[in-house]
Amino acid sequence: MKRGKLVVYTGYSGVGKGTIMKVLRELDDSIKLSVSCTTRAPRPEDVEGVSYFFVTQDKFKELINENAFLEYAVFCDNYYGTPEKAVDEMLEQGYNVFLEIEVQGGLQVMDKRPDCVSIFITPPSFEELEKRLRGRGTEDEETIQKRLARALEEKEYEKYYEHKVLNDEAERAAREIIEIIHRDE
Ligand code: 5GP
User: Fold this and answer.
1) What is the pTM of this model?
2) C-beta 34 within 6 A of ligand 1
């Protein structure tokens, strides 16, 4: 069985990564999404073991010490990390595994796994991003401000990504991503 591709899939908070991912999985059954661990509090729509594995800070630190993570980072006061074993198992089964992670983690993966494909999702504009983040209605004002400030910082990292995909429309963006991941097959 041919090993699948590891895809670093990054974009600012509110850019629409989740919506595109939903379309991607409907259109392409070679795609699997890695489930991360996080110390952030679950949102109402979150499902344990599907959106994330929600863990305490102590548990997260224990997992760091056990070398359980392919990468991890702190984002807006919370830890997020990718469990390495599950990712490799899916790759060995031939799946193309997407890591929906922020830039610090993205760079760690590019360093550790140089054969990965890196994709950065961009918004039509920062005004549009703010509108989408507010429209989601899941964060309080302080969190929205933090996430917007973080988006401006993350912009500096865009250049390290091999592919930039504009999220003007979720299905169009998803089709572009599918074309990218199957390009050299
Ligand atoms: P959210 O709290 O909105 O679910 O995620 C916040 C940010 O953390 C997003 O940019 C998301 O892609 C990123 N993220 C989610 N899981 C991981 C992970 O395992 N590692 C890293 N480095 N970032 C992650």
Assistant:
1) 0.94
2) no
